[in-house]
Amino acid sequence: MRNAIVDRDEWIKARKELLEEEKSFSKARDALAAKRRALPWVKVDKTYAFETAEGAKSLRDLFDGRNQLIVQHFMFGPDWEEGCPSCSFWGDNFDQTVPHLAARDVAFVAVSRAPLQNLLAYRDRLGWSFPWVSSLGNDFNFDFDVSFDSERAPDQPVYYNYHDTVFPASEAPGVSVFFKDDADEIYHTYSVFARGLEDLNGTYRLLDTTPKGRDEDALAYPMEWVRRRDQY
C-alpha cells in the first residue's frame, strides 16, 4: 500500500481537515452517550445466585458496595475447555480498568456459565485479576439474551442484539449495565452486543489509528486473526 506523498504543509492541511471531522464525531459520541444515560430502566426483581471465589453471591452482592455494575457476558459454556478467544481479547482490555471504574462508583465482573473452577483456572492462565463468577446454576445469561439452548437446530433463530437471528454457538458476547439505588433496588439500564462492543476494546481503537488499520479485508471473517494472548 502507498498513500499520496506530500510535504509537511500539505500534510498539516489534510490533517486539519480530518481533525474537524474527528471533532464532530466526538461531539456526536458525547450526545449519543447522553442519550444512552437517559434510557429508561427495567427493575430486576428476579433473584440470582452466582458461584464466586468467595462463595455464593447475589446480583446485589456483585455491586461490591457501589451503585453501578458493569457485567461482561464472557462466552465460556458449561462444557467448554477454554474461554472464547474474542471474549478473551476484550478481557485483556478490561482487566486493568477495574480500579479506575471503582473510583467512579462502578463495579465490574465477568459472568459465564462454565463451572467456577474452570473460570478461575483460565483467569490464572491469562494473568487476569478481575472478578469472574459462574451463572451455571441460574438463568442470568439466558435472561439477558447471551445464552441459548445448545440443543436447538443450527438454523433455529435466537433473540440476540435485539432481533431474531441465527447464531452459531450456545453463548454470545455482550456487556450489561445495572444500577442499585439507595433503597437497594436493582435496575437494568443498558446492554450492548455484537459490533456495539467494539467501542469497549482499546486495541481496536489503536489499530484504527494505523495506516493498515485492522487489516482484516482478506480474512475469512474479521476476527479470524484474534488469538488468546498466550497463543500468538
3D structure, described in words:
This protein is of the alpha+beta class and 232 residues long. The protein has one domain (42-204): Glutaredoxin. 30% of the residues lie in helices and 20% in strands. It contains 7 helices and 10 strands. The chain has a 6-stranded mixed beta sheet with strand order 1-10-9-4-5-6. The protein has a two-stranded antiparallel sheet with strand order 2-3. Strands 7-8 form a two-stranded antiparallel sheet. Strand 5 (106-112), helix 5 (116-126) and strand 6 (132-134) form a beta-alpha-beta unit. It is globular. The two termini are 25 Å apart.
In short:
The chain is of the alpha+beta class and 232 residues long. It has seven helices and ten strands.
